[in-house]
Amino acid sequence: MMKRFSILALGSLFFAAPSFAQTCPSDCSDIVWGDVNGDGAIDITDLSVLASHLAGTGTVVPCDGADNNRDGAIDIADLNNLGAYLAGTGPAPQEQFCCDDCANTTAAGDANEDGTVDIADSTAISDYLAGTNTDICLHAADANADGVVDEADVKVVLAYLFDGGDAPALECF
Fold first, then answer.
1. Which of 37, 54, 109, 167 could disulfide-link 14, Cβ–Cβ 3.0 to 4.6 Å?
2. Does residue 124 sit in the same domain as residue 81?
3. How many structural domains compose the chain?
4. Burial (0-12, 13-18, 19+ Cβ within 10 Å), 165
C-alpha cells in the first residue's frame, strides 16, 4: 500500500509538467518502452529519471522508451503508466504497442481477430488484462485509440454492442 501511495504522490507533483513532441521510428521493436535510462530494465530508476525530466531538472532522449503510452509526448500520463506498472496495477509498458501487423488487417475492437466485433472481443481484452490471454491484436484491442489496452477498451466495446455507443476507433501511434 505504501509503495502505491508514494508512486501516486510522486505523479501528482507533476500534473502540469511540460511535454514535447517526438518523432520515433515506425519500427519500435528495438525500443523497450518504460526503460527510460536505457539500462535494459524497467524499474524505479526509470520512474525517477522520468519524474526529473518532467520537473525540468533532467532530460530524456526522444524514443528512449519514456513515451510509454505512445501519444507523441513525454508527460504525466507516461509517469502514471510507469508508476502503475511498477506498483503492479498496470500493464508492462512494452506490452503497449506500435502499429503492428494485425492493425493492417483487423477492425478496431476486433481483439480476437475473428472478423467481427462482438462480446468475445470484450472477453478477450478482459482476459488479456487478467494475464490469461496474450493471443490478441493489441492495436485492435485498443478500442478507444488512446495507445493503451485497459479497462476503458472493454467498456467501449460493450457500449458499442449494447448501448449504442460509438464504434471502436483504430489509430496508429
1. 54
2. no
3. 2
4. middle
